[in-house]
Amino acid sequence: xxxxxxLLECVHLSRVLPGSPGRLLLDDIQxxxxxxxxxxxLGPSGAGKSSLLRVLNRLDEPTSGTVLLDGQDYREIPxxxxxxRVGMVMQRAFLFPGTVAENISFGPKxxxxxxxxxxxxxxxxxVALDGYASRPAANLSGGEAQRVAILRALANEPxxxxLDEPTSxxxxxxxxxxxxxxxxxxxRRGLTCIWVTHDGRQARRLAAKALLxxxxxxxxxGQIEHVLPEAVE
Amino acid sequence: MIGRFLHSQISQGLAGxxxxxxxxxxxxxLARRRGVNMLKELPLAQLRGFLQIxxxxxxxxxxxxGPRWTGIPVxxxxxxxxxxxxxxRAKNIPRAFALALQSICVGAGGVLxxxxxxxxxxxxxxxxxxxxxxxxxxxMNMQSIFLDRLRGEVLSHIGEIESALALGASTQVTIFxxxxxxxxASLIPSVxxxxxxxxxxxxxxxxxxxxxxxxxxYAALYQFVxxxxxxSAAALTCFTASYLVVGRIFNAQExxxxxx
Lengths: 233, 260
Prior knowledge:
The structure holds two protein chains of two kinds.
Chain A: E1 8-16, E2 24-33, E3 38-42, H1 49-56, E4 64-69, E5 72-73, H2 79-85, E6 86-89, H3 100-110, H4 117-126, H5 142-154, E7 160-164, H6 172-189, E8 193-197, H7 200-206, E9 209-214, E10 217-223, H8 224-227
Parallel strand pairs in A: 3-8, 3-9, 6-7, 7-8
Antiparallel strand pairs in A: 1-2, 1-4, 4-5, 9-10
Chain B: H1 2-5, H2 9-31, H3 41-63, H4 71-89, H5 96-117, H6 125-156, H7 158-166, H8 171-195, H9 204-211, H10 216-244, H11 246-249
């Protein structure tokens, strides 16, 4: 049987806390992710979940090891090009001043690509924000802002999307709305994602595979029903 | 009143310094009632400033009799001292001294050179050094405000900056709104100085020229020239710093280095 080559491969990835040589934020992380897979990354606070996403987006540099994106060492890819290919949504939306449409078109504009208002309206309709294009981003609720942040990352058409606890700052209703929207986007676009979460049930709802981290090390990985059996109802 | 008891110019000057310093200390003693305690810091600052300005007076007195080129090393030494003071304000910005010195050399050095070549500032030590020192001092102040404000803007917008980077934006695009805010903030005091010229204050050069017998109209025109020169030099310094600082705030991998 010939296996599909992974879209993303972490190879002995480690990162030391700057200024504290003895403190490993990531310790010899290894895993693979194939095209179209959703990986849930779980672990307690300080386990290294956000550090892992930051290194994958190259907002931070690995101390040793590397990441292969479609078989290529990601350090050979210019940072801007890499970040367009590997999108990231942060815990908080951090929308830019301006309208919702300006936020969504920000990424493509950086790559010299314009997206039409029709495309923006269509994207907004996918996340139940019809008619929001001309609204000031500053006036959105937390849940709305986070949905716009997801669209803003998707507008770059990334090969891989990293989501760093995108629902952690939201109330339960907004959290479920974002999750629902995200689930429909996965279906529509066949997204490849890494979703960091504290919540095992959320991971069960969204991801097929899971990676458990503790003190920067992988303690378990594999199919989610094997890694998180207690969440199986 | 001092003139009644002291007859030499130097002893009158020293007595004036003492009176001015004691007045400042008394006001700072009063400020303790509002929780501001600078009674330890102020005397040291006063002593340092006094010794520095007296040293400059002595050096100027010596240089006035020397060749014209001697003004250049004096101004260079002032630029180095100014860059060192800017560095202390630019906390956490790597290689801030070199950044400050390069910007001051371009801003103050460039504009002074234009004024010297244009014949506006004569290459005479008695004029070049005082005018140059005012230009360098203002470039130092404006650059300190610029870097301090930029540091604050960046630290309070790390999320927005990293979000923009994560979307594939360049470091120049990412930092642009914060550079603009810091640049504007650094220009405000100088623009206010020009705007209030003659209404709120009559600067030292004009006062000195009038006291020494120059035509008040010429003194006013020359004062405008000096203030505009100072503004151009300071603005060019901040403009230069606004480009150089990006290479200090981000590394070659376009990762944000500046942290609280």
